[in-house]
Design a protein that fits this description.
about 500 residues; alpha/beta; Rossmann fold; UDP-N-acetylmuramoyl-L-alanine:D-glutamate ligase; 2 domains; 7-stranded parallel β-sheet; 17 helices; about 40% helix; Bifunctional NAD(P)H-hydrate repair enzyme; isomerase; metal-binding; lyase
Length: about 500
């Protein structure tokens, strides 16, 4: 499932009508009918329905929805919130069809009249504004939106909640708060932004006939269950531990041995063939007691943290993960810098590893092997020199800028984790829940990433599958045996097996 900007969506519309030859009226009819079918599955026959229709294609969709539901026996009226002269083209055509079928229309922007109508309504269908809105709403639409939001009625938005920007980057806007949104064709970028996603409520997409050839230039997508199953490598019956990767995890300190423990356990549970934990001597007993399947590499230490003044046999491993529980002491910085310079296989930097590399990002450009960074928004802000709020407003843009500039893979963690490849392709992970908002969750993800990196031929697929497994483990645990309050990172490690068993059973 691809993710589009407003301009990309307009381009798909133009391509479908001008190059393919599909009439615009057909697209509008398809959209209205497809949305109506989804609406019917979410309402009762006795519900009183009011469609709020604006101008343009979104208003036209509203008139098709109103006619379709009217002809199926629903009690439905339309409130047109713009003057009649603004209803033109295909929207005017479908308004007239609705009237010819016996439909009732009220043209008003008066908040008192709208409030009275809402008091007699069970379901509002929001078809006021489409994907072209930028900035705060003007009157009277702003007051109309506020009045709808103040009403207790259930709101279903057509394609996008009115007023909500389709793209990232907007800080100030007014939007309908939908309970349910039926998105036409492809989800828009704002579906996956922390500050805009809640306005959609629950959402799903409907297919209205856009040709597959219209998708060729799209580079953003949602990683789905089906893609995870298709890209997860099979294990041959005659395989051995060496076939599934030999990984090295460097981290931990006297004060923070738990981080590397979680990473090591996650890597083993996710399928890594062999895992070695490199840490200070004070942490080795903790690691060994919790991860008996792993081997240990005792590293030189200074005051309880790993010393950078040492040689590590990176060439013995297929992939390296570095940073969890490492600490921010200056003496550990050189181990991170040296790893970026010396590791000639995949290198995954997390947590304190990101802290130590922040002033030496140019080193990524000199690597011939891939580097992966796994920041949360605060760490991404540190690496890019902007505020956390700016990262949250434009996570796609900042991720792609960093990935292209430094030729690194970026796993920007959040409620919607965005995986970005150096070539500009991006993928959003939608598994996971608020139970993951605890210390240690990122350490677990890094372990899964390490294991997946060593088992997949394509690193982009490996990162996407790792994020999927991490979130899906949390989802399965919360649905079966835990709540979002008591879920711990160590529980997620044990939940990895549930993901594999679930999808193996579906094969």
């Amino acid at each position: 499932m691809y993710i589009v900007t407003a301009n990309e969506m307009y381009g798909i519309d133009r391509y479908t009508t001008e190059e393919i030859g599909m009439d615009g009226k057909m697209l509008m009819e398809n959209a209205g009918r497809a949305i109506s079918e989804r609406i019917e599955s979410n309402i009762k026959n006795t519900d009183v329905i009011t469609v709020f229709a604006g101008s343009g294609n979104n208003g036209g969709d509203g008139y098709v929805i109103a006619r379709t539901l009217l002809n199926r026996g629903y009690q439905i009226t339309v409130i047109q919130v713009v003057p009649d002269e603004k209803i033109t083209g295909d929207a005017r055509y479908y308004k007239n069809l609705f009237i010819n079928c016996g439909g009732s229309i009220s043209i008003t922007g008066d908040p008192v009249e709208i409030d009275e109508a809402l008091n007699q309504t069970d379901i509002v269908i929001d078809a006021i504004l489409g994907i072209g809105v930028k900035g705060e709403l003007r009157e009277p639409i702003k007051t109309i939106v506020d009045t709808i939001n103040d009403s207790p009625v259930r709101v279903i938005s057509a394609d996008i909640p009115s007023g909500l920007p389709a793209d990232e980057g907007a800080a100030a806007f007014d939007s309908v708060q939908a309970d349910y949104t039926i998105i036409v064709g492809y989800p828009k970028m704002s579906t996956f932004l922390q500050h805009t996603a809640p306005f959609y409520g629950e959402w799903e997409t409907v297919d209205i006939g856009f040709p597959e050839s219209a998708q060729t230039s799209l580079t953003r997508s949602v990683w789905t269950d089906r893609q995870f199953k298709n890209k997860m490598p099979d294990r041959k019956k005659d395989s051995h531990k060496g076939d599934h990767g030999r990984g090295l995890i460097i981290g931990g300190s006297e004060e923070m041995p738990g981080s590397i423990v979680m990473t090591v356990r996650a890597a083993l549970r996710a399928g890594a063939g062999l895992v070695t934990a490199g840490s200070v001597k004070q942490a080795i007993p903790v690691i060994a007691s919790q991860c008996i399947e792993a081997t240990n590499l005792k590293l030189k230490e200074f005051d309880g943290v790993i010393s950078g003044d040492q040689s590590i046999p990176y060439q013995n491993y297929d992939a390296i993960a570095l940073g969890m529980g490492l600490g921010r002491h200056e003496s550990t910085r050189s181990i991170v810098i040296n790893a970026v310079r010396q590791v000639d296989g995949p290198l995954i930097l997390d947590a304190d590893g990101l802290y130590h590399i922040q002033h030496d990002l140019e080193l990524f450009k000199g690597r011939t092997a891939p580097a992966v960074i796994t920041p949360h928004p605060g760490e991404m802000a540190m690496l890019t020199g902007v505020s956390v709020q700016e990262i949250l407003r434009e996570p796609f843009a900042y991720s792609i800028e960093f990935a292209r500039m430094y030729q690194a893979f970026v796993v920007l963690k959040g409620s919607f984790t965005i995986v970005t490849a150096p070539n500009g392709h991006q993928s959003v992970n939608t598994t996971g829940n608020q139970g993951l908002a605890k210390g240690g969750s990122g350490d677990v993800l890094t372990g899964i990433i390490l294991a997946m990196t060593m088992q997949h031929e394509d690193l982009f697929d490996a990162l996407r599958n790792a994020c999927f497994v991490h979130g899906k483990a949390a989802d399965l645990l919360v649905s079966n045996s835990h709540s979002v309050y008591d879920l711990m990172a160590t529980d997620v490690v044990e939940g990895i097996g549930k993901v594999y068993r679930t999808f193996s059973a579906e094969t």
